[in-house]
Amino acid sequence: MVNLTSPPASSAGVRAPLLFLNVLIIATCGLIYELLAGTLASYVLGDSVTQFSLIIGIYLFALGAGAWLSQFIESGLARRFIEIELGVALLGGASAPLLFLSFARLNYFSVVLYGIVFIIGVLVGLELPLLMRILKDQLAFKDLVSRVLTFDYIGSLVAALLFPLFFVPRLGLVRTSLIFGLFNAGVGLWATWFLQPMLKGSVFLLRVRAVVVMALLVMGILNADLLTSLAEDDLFTDPIVYARTTSYQRIVVTNNKAGFQLFLNGHLQFSSTDEYRYHETLVHPAMVLANAPRRVLILGGGDGLALREVLRHPSVEQVTLVDLDPGMTQLAHAFPPLAALNHQSFSDPRVHVVNQDAMIWLEETSEVFDVAMIDFPDPHSFGVGKLYTTRFYRLLKQRLTPEGVFSVQCTSPLFARTAYWCIVRTIEAAGFTVKPYQVAVPSFGVWGFALARLTPFDPPQRAPDGLRFLNNHTMATLFHFPVDMGPVPVEVNRLDNQVLVRYYESEWKRYE
User: How far apart are CA 7 and CA 397, in angstroms?
Assistant: First the structure.
C-alpha cells in the first residue's frame, strides 16, 4: 500500500516554512535591486519617470523570461536553486557600485544598466518556479501557489516601504546594494543545510562558494564609502568636500580655486562664485514690489541664500522657510563655507524653519504673508512638477494678502523655452497677473523667473542699495526678452496632467 501522507524521498526532511521564508527574502532583495537601479538611473541620467518605467518593465519581463527558462532545469533542483541564489547575491549586491563606476567610465552606460536589471530579473524569475517544484510534493497545489505568491507580494511591500524610509537614507545606495547581496548569499549558504536531503553528492564546494561570495560582499560593505568616492570622483570635475545621502536626495559639495558648488542628485544647484546673481534676482524684485513687507515666506531654498537676501530688508519682521529636507537646512548650519556664504541667516531670530512638503504645508497652515519666494528644483519629475501646478498656485493665493507678491524660478527660457512659458501660463491660469523676467548666471546660462500678483502691476524699476549685481538699471532690463526667448503656445500644467514635466524632459534632453 502506498503511504499518501509521507513525502517522497526527494524532498524528505525539507521544511516548507523555511522555503516560504526564502520566497520572502528573494522578493524583497529582487525589488530592492530594481529600486536601486531606478534611483541610480534617475540620479545620473535624469528623466526619472522614464527610467523607473523602463526598469520596472524590463524587470517584470525578465521575471517572465526566467520563469520560462526554469522548465529546462530538469534535475538537481536544490543545487541549481542555491547556485542561482549565489549569482543573484553577487550581481545584485555589486549592482550599485558597478552602475556608479560604469556611468563615470563607459559611453554605453544604458546598456550596462538595462543588462544588469534584465539578468537579475531572469535569475529571480528562475528561483521561484524552482522553489515551487521543490515544494510540490509537500503541499496541495492551491496552497502552494497561494502561499508562494503571498510571500512574494509581502516581500515586495517590505522592500517598497523600507527602501526610501530606512535603507537609502541610513545606509546609502552602495551599502544597501551590498547588504542585500549579503542577505542573498546567506540564504544560499543556509540552503545547503536545510535542502541537504535533496542535494546529491558533496556540498563542501557549494558552501565554499557561498562563503567566498559573502566575504567579497563584506569587503565591499566595509569599503562602501571608498567605492562611492571612487565613482563620484569621476562624476564631478572638482574634488568632493562633503557628501551625504538623506531621505530625499544625495547632497554633494565640490570645491575648486574659485569657490564651492552644491549638487543635489548630481544636478548643480549653485556655485558660490555667481550664486548672488541668481538669488538677488529671485528675491529683490518681489521685495521691492511688495513695498516694505513684514511677513515673508520662502518655499525651498534650504541653502539659506535666498533667506540672506530677504534679511537685507529692514522691514522684515518674520520669515518662514519651508524646505522638505532637514539634511539641506542642517547643511546650511553645519558646513562652514555655506554658513559663511548665507551670512549665518538661519541664526537670525526672525527666521522659522519648517521641514515639510510645501504643498501639504500650504494646505494645513493658516498664516498669511506679504511676499513669497519659491526656489524649488526644476520640474524633472512628477513629485516636483506638482509644485508648479494650478493647484499649488491656488493654495499659495490663499496664503497671500490681497496685495501679496510672489516670485518663482522657472528654469531657462533659452534652453527650456516651452517649459518656462508653461510655468508662466500656469500661474496666470491660477488667477495671477504675471511679469516674466530673466538673468544671465554664468554657471547656468540664461535663467528665468516670474513675478506675480493678484492685481495688475508694473515691473519694479529700482533696486536696493548695496547689492553686488542689481542696480536700478539692471532691475529694469530684467523684464526684457529677446526674440528667441519669447512666448510660445503651451498647455497649462495641472495636477492630473503634468505636461510641464514632459516639456522639461524633452527640452533638456537635447543638451545631455
Answer: 70
Residue 241's domain is classified under what CATH number? 2.30.140.10
Q: Which candidate, 212, 179, 20, places its Cα nearest to that of 95?
A: 179
Report the DSSP pairing between strands 351-354 and 318-322: parallel
Provide the domain limits for residue 264. Answer: 234-269
Q: Are residues 136 and 114 in the same domain?
A: yes
Catalytic site residue from 303, 375, 378, 496 = 375
Non-local (6+) Cβ contacts of 440 within 8 A are 277, 446, 447
Contacts 24+ apart (CB under 8 A), 394-398: 394/430, 394/431, 395/359, 395/362, 395/363, 396/362, 396/372, 397/430, 397/431, 397/432, 397/454, 398/362
CATH of the domain at 452: 3.40.50.150
Describe the strand order of the beta sheet including 260-264 as a list of residue ranges. Answer: 240-245, 250-255, 260-264, 267-271
**Full pLDDT tens readout for the chain, 512 residues:** 334 333 443 444 456 666 667 677 777 777 787 777 777 766 666 556 667 778 888 888 998 999 999 999 988 888 998 899 899 889 988 888 888 778 767 777 888 888 988 998 898 888 888 878 887 766 677 776 777 777 777 777 777 777 777 787 777 788 888 888 888 888 888 888 878 888 887 889 999 999 999 999 999 988 887 777 777 776 777 888 888 878 778 888 999 988 999 998 778 899 999 999 999 999 999 999 999 999 999 999 999 999 999 999 999 999 999 999 999 999 998 899 999 999 999 999 999 999 999 999 999 999 999 999 999 999 988 888 999 999 999 999 999 999 999 999 999 999 999 999 999 999 999 999 999 999 999 999 999 999 999 999 999 999 999 999 999 999 999 999 999 999 999 999 998 889 999 899 889 878 76
Question: Do residues 63 and 91 both lie within one domain?
Answer: yes
Overall number of domains in the chain:
3
In this prediction the pTM is 0.77
Neighbours of 20 (CB within 10 A): 19
Do residues 369 and 240 both lie within one domain? no
Alpha carbons 80 and 71: distance in angstroms, whole number = 12
- Cell numbers at 464, concatenated: 536696493
CA distances from 191 to 73, 131, 200 (A): 18, 11, 14
Does residue 6 belong to any structural domain of this protein? no
Pair 376, 299: CB distance under 8 Å: yes
CATH number of the domain at 136, please: 1.20.1250
Residue 2 lies in a domain: no
Question: For residue 260, which phi and psi values (nearest 5 degrees)?
Answer: -125, 160
Q: Please name every residue paired with 261 in a beta bridge, in sequence order, or none if there are none.
A: 254, 271
Active site residue 375: yes
Could you give the CA distance from residue 468 to residue 408 in angstroms, rounded to a whole number? Answer: 21
Looking at the fold, whether 365 and 494 belong to one and the same domain comes out as yes
Q: Can you tell me the distance from the alpha carbon of 9 to that of 444, in angstroms, rounded to the nearest whole number? A: 70
Cell 496552497 belongs to which residue? 143
